[in-house]
Write a structure and sequence with these properties.
The complex is a heterodimer. Chain A is mainly alpha-helical. Helix content of chain A is about 70%, strand content about 0%. The longest helix of chain A is centred in the C-terminal third of the chain and has 32 residues. The termini of chain A are far apart. By secondary structure, chain B is mostly helical. In chain B, helix 12 packs parallel to helix 18. The longest helix of chain B is centred in the middle third of the chain and has 35 residues. The chains are: A mainly alpha, B mainly alpha. At the A-B interface, helix 3 and helix 4 of A face helix 6 and helix 7 of B.
């Protein structure tokens, strides 16, 4: 049991991050905090891919002279890293659009608090 | 030659347009609209061409950079994807043709940026439909979603907040999908859809795959706004500018529905998600709850655009119900409704936008019988679309409901049959109250009123509305031909 918990510590950490992110997005009233929650949520998924690509006693996927190329166990899986580069870019774009929207909201209503905004919109 | 590269040409055409519009916009201000319209026209012609080619010669597979899958990214142009590409490009063409006046009035000075983002949105939608790679699908989801947030956010004062809510919820949906394909990838070692479809049967027992399935269903459920994940939809559609909601409402949620069909039916397989898990039943139950919920709330709305938004929640429920029935009739119903609803919602949103432009509001309680004299053709188109939504026989909307009803009978799920019948009545309630106000005489002696002059909307706005409305009649009459083709799209193991 303890081995199971300790052996998957990175996944427990990722689950914790996912929960924190969801909590921030749903419970927090300030829109910027919601956005921070969203970023944490995305970062958790990126970490999930990265930590799943890791192999014990393996190195970066670059040909090294004294390591045999034939044995794939010597190298960690490069594909998740490449995918996550794209996902990071997507995340940056999302945050950019979100900040643009936040600026517009602030210009229109002079507040970023959700309850106040709903009150003002009535 | 061109048919071999067709799957890549269509999304790239839109991507090219979204880059070229701002560049040429510096030189000439009014060039954005003609380029956008021309590119969409070209894409529509290409998709008609591609659809005919696929019918005659079978699917087209395009390998990006010449890399053979599962290593490279594959674009697949088969029966289903060529059909849906044709539907969304066709509807988008007419909505863009319509949008010239509304964009000039609502967003004057921003046309260049607006049409550039519209092209980006269509890149995302076309890419989502054509791609055969799971991660590529995620990227296209995000491209179309980001463009969608921008298009909604440029609306009136309340629009940025609605767009922000949509952004948060939409990102949760896309992230769930990303997590789900992560599970699939680490279990199977492949991201290619057809490759994965071959590997999945070997490990159906694995709980990881079940979790992945749930995450993917939730992710697309948010994207296509299945009840209870529809929360972002009403505000976004209501506060968005007319041209945006007319563009996003008919095709946005449909593309999510298509992606769900593609993954559930073609990757996971009918047998697996419907029989071994109760996933299909769950989707059907939530969808039918959404049908009733959306219809009831649509009745309660005072504003036409908001009413149409809630009606979208209900209509998406029909597609979800068709997916969840997981039998041939349900599949036909879902795909046919995808087509019909795209036409109906585009017509209705364009009518609502036109009324809003002319009258300054689209408040249902202020509708009266002068409208039928002021806008005879617009109201005729509205009537056709509304009757089609209710499901009167010669019109398109009847046939998708008919096939869905046949599907429920085949599964002997009488509750869902009752839902379809009741919701038709509810649809009738919220559309006929408008038709009643417009076509019946108002009780308090309207003959006293001065003569109302004909005040039809601009020609460039009227033509697309009329074409789509006539399209509804044509689709209804020709539906047996369409169903014959949908029959060919069915995944293996369904019949």
């Amino acid at each position: 049991m303890f081995d199971f918990i300790a052996g998957h510590y990175d996944y427990w950490f990722i689950i914790l991050l996912l929960v924190i992110g969801l909590y921030g997005m749903t419970v927090k009233k300030n829109l910027v905090k919601k956005l921070i929650g969203m970023t944490i949520f995305q970062a958790a998924i990126i970490l999930f891919y990265i930590s799943s690509a890791i192999k014990v006693d393996a190195t970066v996927p670059i040909i090294i002279e004294n390591l045999s190329v034939e044995n794939p166990a010597n190298y960690i899986n490069p594909l998740p890293h490449a995918l996550m580069l794209t996902a990071i870019v997507v995340g940056v774009a999302t945050v950019g659009v979100a900040f643009a929207l936040l600026i517009l909201i602030y210009k229109n209503y002079k507040t970023l608090d959700e309850t106040e905004l709903i009150e003002l919109m009535k | 030659m061109i048919e071999k590269n067709l799957p890549a040409i269509i999304p790239l055409l839109f991507l090219f347009a979204s880059l070229i519009i701002p560049l040429l916009g510096v030189w000439k201000k009014n060039i954005a609209y003609p380029i956008a319209a021309l590119i969409t026209l070209a894409a529509t012609i290409l998709s008609i061409f591609g659809f005919i080619h696929v019918i005659n010669n079978g699917p087209i597979n395009y390998f990006f950079g010449g890399w053979i899958p599962p290593i490279g990214i594959e674009y697949v142009y088969d029966y289903l994807s060529s059909f849906v590409v044709l539907v969304i490009n066709f509807v988008a063409l007419f909505v863009i043709a319509y949008s010239y006046q509304p964009v000039n009035i609502d967003l004057s000075g921003k046309q260049t940026a607006y049409y550039s983002v519209v092209m980006l949105l269509l890149t995302g939608f076309n890419g989502m439909i054509i791609t055969g790679d799971l991660f590529n699908l995620y990227v296209f989801i995000e491209i179309s979603s980001l463009a969608g947030y921008a298009l909604i956010g440029v609306g009136d004062k309340k629009a940025p907040f609605a767009a922000f809510k949509y952004l948060i919820i939409g990102t949760i949906g896309a992230s769930f999908y990303l997590l789900g394909i992560g599970y699939l990838y680490f279990m199977s070692g492949t991201l290619n859809m057809s490759d994965l479809a071959g590997i999945l049967p070997l490990m159906e027992e694995s709980p990881t795959i079940i979790v992945a399935l749930i995450l993917i269903v939730v992710g697309f459920g948010i994207k296509m706004a299945i009840f209870p994940m529809h929360g972002w939809l009403p505000d976004s559609y209501t506060f968005a500018p007319t041209s945006s909601s007319a563009l996003i409402a008919p095709i946005g949620t449909k593309v999510g529905a298509y992606a769900m069909i593609r993954l559930l039916y073609f990757v996971f397989g009918v047998e697996y998600f419907s029989n071994e898990l109760a996933a299909a039943d769950l989707i059907a139950v939530f969808s039918s709850a959404g049908i009733i919920f959306g219809s009831v709330l649509a009745i309660a709305q005072k504003e036409m655009k908001r009413m149409l938004a809630y009606s979208s929640v209900a209509q998406i429920g029909y597609i979800g119900l068709g997916i969840g029935l997981a039998n041939p009739f349900g599949f036909i119903g879902a795909v046919l409704h995808l087509l019909n609803h795209a036409f109906m919602k585009a017509t209705l949103f364009m009518v609502a936008g036109s009324i809003r432009m002319k009258e300054g509001h689209s408040d249902i309680y202020k509708f009266d019988d002068s409208y039928r004299k002021k806008y005879p053709w617009t109201m005729a188109a509205f009537t056709v679309a509304a009757l089609s939504m209710v499901g009167l026989p010669p019109l398109a909307g009847f046939f998708s409901k008919w096939y869905l009803a046949l599907g429920t009978i085949e599964n002997s799920s009488w509750l869902f049959l009752a839902v379809i019948l009741i919701s038709s009545l509810l649809n009738a309630v919220y559309f006929f109250r408008i038709l009643e106000k417009v076509y019946m005489k108002s009780p308090e002696g309207s003959e006293v009123k001065e003569k109302v002059k004909k005040n039809e909307i601009k020609f460039s706005m009227l033509i697309p509305i009329l074409v789509l409305a006539i399209g509804l009649i044509v689709l209804g009459i020709l539906n047996f031909i369409i169903v014959e083709h949908i029959y060919k799209m069915m995944p293996e193991g369904m019949l």
